[in-house]
Amino acid sequence: MNESYEKSSSSTACSTPVAGATLPECYDVSDTFYTSQRKGRKYVFRVRLDINGFTLQRESPSGTIVKEQTVKLCDIVGARCMRLKKTRRLAVASACACSAGNPNSPAASVNRSGATPSKCSTASKEDFTCDGDVSAYLYVFAYVLKKKSLRSEFHRERTVLTLRFRSFDTFEDNMREADRWYRALRWQLHRTLESIFVVRNEEDRRRRILVMLNPKSGSGNAREVFNMHVTPVLNEAEVPYDLYVTKHSNFAIEFMSTRCLDAWCCVVAVGGDGLFHEIVNGLLQREDWAKVLPSIALGIIPCGSGNGLARSIAHGYNEPYFSKPVLGAALTVISGCSSPMDVVRVQLQNRSLYSFLSIGWGFISDVDIESERIRVLGYQRFTIWTLYRLANLRTYNGKISYLLTEPEENAQHTPELKMQTSRSCNTHIDKLSTTNNNPSFHHSTEYLPHEFADVISLETSINQSFRSRCDSWLSGGSRRSYYYSVSESIYHSLADDSDFAAQAAISLENRQQNFGPTSSLPELDEPLPEDEGWLVEEGEFIMMHAVYQSHLGIDCHFAPKAQMNDGTIYLILIRGGISRPQLLSFLYNMSTGTHLPEVNNEYVKVLPVRAFRLEPHDNHGIITIDGERVEFGPLQAEVLPGIARVMVPK
């Protein structure tokens, strides 16, 4: 957060800004604004900021409310106080920029692409002032749910609510008034955040987040995605971050298991499910894992091929995904809300791993790994290789033992959020002077145009002139800006961290064995106790897939009943002997979640379990954990309910 705003003095509830005054305890602010429309029509608006968000009420001349609109607090990400930057046209204009009827007035061109707002403080006002204009502006950034038509799906649309303050003679006084609203909004936003995301002091501020970026994930465009779509959202929300780019396989495991993480409240994976898998395993290979996991949340920006976790989070909270998946994930990362997430401990022959998504053996794992050779096609590679593998069907011989969950164990439910439409309007409001009672802050009418100009406006994402920027390597192509940049955000190059990499690689094997939750299952080479209710399926299988998220990919609704914190592994078995048309129907309906039978049959079974053991009888095949190939052989897995925390939408 920019210090000029943290240290700016604020005013009380009275209309006159007083330096050094404190905000009222309620942090609710309201005022009356004017608007000037075409044909000389003028309207009066009552604007209020409270626990629900911004409420705009248009009043008739008789004082009755004609129209009301609310920008919900849960849709608002942040705000900025600033003034208009001096444009070239204004620089050469000889007339007063704020004089009546002047077409070059900054008030009249607030929404033009040429009039760019800049961060402003009382110390730097001379550099960016518009001649004669002492107005201060408050820009509020929100992402509201909208529908283009009745038949279209919901999507998040960027909306900018702009308030102009010019009740007083000096820019400093107007900025204090705008700053009062800004601080009230920031307090309202911070009170919705969980305690681990905010530093509680006199000036509440967001804690830093750690961003791990895999430049080779998916189609290899993770850098560009983060630069163009994630950084602006982080800056609008004033969330400082540290960015690390992975250099090699298992880099995130080494980093998360050796570095001190006290400075960060959240770890965000910019990549696919594989990078998130490394982060989870790195955290659980720490000696202090039991202390770190409750104090740090995990987030993901989907840039991979599958993106099962990001899709599962959006599905569980009724958030739109397909229109702008990266935007939705970025808003989730800054939401300040988290939810417990199950993690599955997987014991292999020579090591133990931790999984958050799935364990596969057979058909789906074959498709996932073998399609790597056409990775350039992105997510379509899965469809193409599914058809190829269906034509060349394989079966695998093995034994699967499992412990069914108790009915009451599967009782946790992820809260569902009801999506509602949100209308935008092009309302323009001007600040009403309320300083007649104080002669020292009289309103200077000689600088007021006859028609009030744009002051409050709800803009759509079409106009991106106020889009946040970042003055670093991440902002290639964007021009330098004096505002919106989070100066505390840092890009870390790890080219000189060779000592760290060498030391981490040496101790990686020891951490895998010594740390993390202990297993409640017998050793892999020991028989399972017969008196604990273990059941067995044995014979020829097309596939076995154990899933604990609802989606394996963006359009693979594999386990519709799965929730993030239900303590259940959904074990799906397809036996050999199933016909190709039946298998094709199963695979085709995975996109809608209607592929699973309501009652288990001879070929397809869905088993809610809390632990299972796989013992292949063949000496060949592919086994995957979270989409990553592991050594082939026997394994066993058990669920660790709610051991991790993941970022979720508000």
From TrEMBL:
Transmembrane segments: none annotated. Its EC number is 2.7.1.91. Residues 204-350 form the DAGKc domain. One of its GO terms (molecular function) is sphingosine kinase activity. PANTHER family: LD11247P-RELATED, SPHINGOSINE KINASE. PROSITE patterns: DAGK. Keywords: ATP-binding, Kinase, Membrane, Nucleotide-binding, Transferase. It holds the Pfam family YegS_C. This is sphingosine kinase. The lineage of its organism: Eukaryota, Metazoa, Ecdysozoa, Arthropoda, Hexapoda. GO terms for biological process: regulation of apoptotic process; sphingosine biosynthetic process. InterPro entries: ATP-NAD_kinase_N, Diacylglycerol_kinase_cat_dom, Lipid_Phosphate_FormReg, NAD/diacylglycerol_kinase_sf, YegS/DAGK_C. Residues 101-123 have a biased composition (Polar residues). Signal peptide: none annotated. Residues 98-124 are annotated as: Disordered. GO terms for cellular component: cytoplasm; endomembrane system; membrane. It is found in: Endomembrane system. Gene3D superfamilies: 2.60.200.40, Probable inorganic polyphosphate/atp-NAD kinase, domain 1.
